[in-house]
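Fold this complex.
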Amino acid sequence: MSGHPSAYEPKTGFTKWLDSRLPVVRLAYDSFVDFPTPKNLNYWWTFGGILAVCLATQILSGIVLAMHYTPTVDGAFASVERIMRDVPYGWLIRYIHANGASMFFLAVYIHMARGLYYGSYKAPREVLWILGCVIYLLMMGTAFLGYVLPWGQMSYHGANVITGLIGALPVVGDSIKAWLMGGPSIGNQTLQRFFSLHYLLPFMIAGVVILHIWALHVPGNNNPAGVEARKDPEGLKKDTVPFHPYYTVKDGFAIVVFLIIFAAFVFYMPNVLGHADNYIEANPLVTPAHIVPEWYLLPFYAILRAITFDIGPIDAKLLGVIFMFGSIAILFVLPWLDTSKVRSMRYRPVARQFFFGFIATMLLLGWCGASNPDDPIIPMGSDQLVVSYTDANGNEATQTYEEYEAAATFRDQKLDEGVDAAIAVAKAPAFRFVHLAQILTLYYFAYFLVILPLLGLREKPKDEPTSIHKAVLGNDRAAPAPAE
Amino acid sequence: MKFLRFISAGLGAAALVASAHAAGGALHPHEPEGGWEFTGPLGELDMESVQRGYQVYREVCASCHGMRLMHYRNLGEPGGPFYDPEYPNANDNPLVKSFAAQDEILSTEPNDVGDYDYRPARTSDPFKSPYPNEQAARAANGGAYPPDLSVITKARPGGASYIYSLLTGYPEDAVISTRTVEVPAEDVTDSEASEEEVEAEEGAAVVEETETVIDVGHMDKLSHGDAHYEGELIQPLGQYYNPYFAGDTTPQWEGDPRHAPPGGFLAMPPQLTPGRVSYMDGTEATVDQMARDVSAFLQWAGEPKQKQRKSTGFASMIYLVILAVLLWFSFHRIWRKVDH
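Structure:
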């Protein structure tokens, strides 16, 4: 798989025999034992291993859950609770699977942010990055499908919102929507195909993960210094350490710390990341007051809802869908949008500020996605009372008041005159969540489409170290050893 | 340490979700005085309270609310309120058997001639349902459907505190009054005024009607805190105001519409009155006590395995922490000769 010469030497008769027929042990040895890995990787690099653990956990727990789950609209909700109540350790398996999805996304977001910061998507790792984006897309699909399966209120109404988005696409939207739902509306047939697809997609993820690792092992790891490990044997020896035991033990430590956080959710706050409404069985006739997706999709939900205006012939709904899908599609072309030759933002002080702005943007977008778009963040002025009544000429008229007493007196006076009158609230102008979301959406796209392309051409980066070895040894403050 | 950053990222995610739940115009549910016993990583349900709570459920709630996910046997299983180590199989537990046998249910199996008989419930049966179906439940409750209580503590933000706050949160008698208002006769439908009233007023342009009015500003639950509500709530017929119930009070509010009181109207009248049940263990059945007990019972019923969850969690955490420490030292030993 990798470019470096194989150091594997079969020792026993059997491994020699196998090696000349199917060199699978050699492959594993070269990929996960002897693989030369930059020696300056920090803890942000442990999330690849953590993600592999997450995927395995989800698949294993999911297989057991599928043994007990009933994919019918009448049985799904009760079967999930039956798993929690009557299946031995079913509560544990189900909580691991439900919280595991959140942990998976937490890890993938850190993994992606690390890639963004250290420029891991740049040549020669473009394909590696794109495969990662494919995995992320598949993960979002899998998570959405899985969230429908317990058949709670958010499952049903969330599915309604998402399939509605696809229906907004011109020409093909309705056909795709009908195909996804298996009919004109969400029902038993939808649940059954979602279950089938939810079982299929993780194995597709696993397949792409293999490609992802393959694409990683051809150029080798990027590293915090952003300079390639030297290719000559002596330089390679100075810049890298074999993956095992150096990174197996470091990743292993990080994985166990991650599992402690994971376990804290599973054992002590298993429902805190979910929505209470999803413990109410789906009822198509009752729509929840606020339909919100799971936390990991909130930023994109905020982008969707931020678009409240039409542009030319494209109406706001379709435009919102375009922006939401566009925000993910843009990641695929990132390697060609960033014009800087310097990988690590350690040496790009200006870009680094924009990067932290981007992280803040994503967190704030999540906040917007969780909030009601019309709620004020910064109120400007106070709400007014408007009394509307019919005036002497029979026209609609209004009068505005600050004080309730005055408004009520005026209304009663009008009512006594035999005229219809009523008080309504005129909301004060305010800076609302939808406005914040619009600004943040603008920054999101500007970061990829304007800042990264232009900055690479105009900024003056700091000097990069000549090698990983120098980056580690030199008293270059920008490249300290990990805190430990 | 760098891991603090990772942990804070996790907490950030949790905070995001928490903010998603904070929305809504109802009063925030609160714990009973002294708090719950079951909160925290080591907290356990007070099983005597859960036992009393089962009595409250059976004698008060069960006449309208079903618990279709619960079986009688659950009461005697490990972690259940009537678990007895002498009867590891809950189906042998005489107390649980007697609870089941007190309920008559329609058998799900046909008899020899193909009819369905009523028979005493067995431990393996689900809790008796108060109504045969949703339509029957609605018909008996003025159109409202009493929700199933099996997972109610997981299905409401605030959980057991919500149940407790709702049950004890109704306006006290002192702030409820009635008044007579005159409404145009054509607006009156039969359901709103009794027939005699309509007859007595026949021919008149207006009829008198009795309205229930709540002086919200003087309600115990709403009078402390910085918000003050000046005005009156007109309670619709067959509906009851509760500041903890998610809803909208503005249409029924006579006062400044910018400061309508929190909460909403629900079809369930206040249920708990002092002495409503006679506790088998002799505990005094105050409203607070009953609300607390039944909330604890529903907390258990929402997740009968929560005790097992916490004890397994404790062991898992110890294991993981030891493993992390060992790996930490292995990591340092292996890397000691490498600058990195």
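The beta strands of chain B are 104-106, 118-120, 176-184, 206-214, 231-235, 240-242, 253-255, 264-266.
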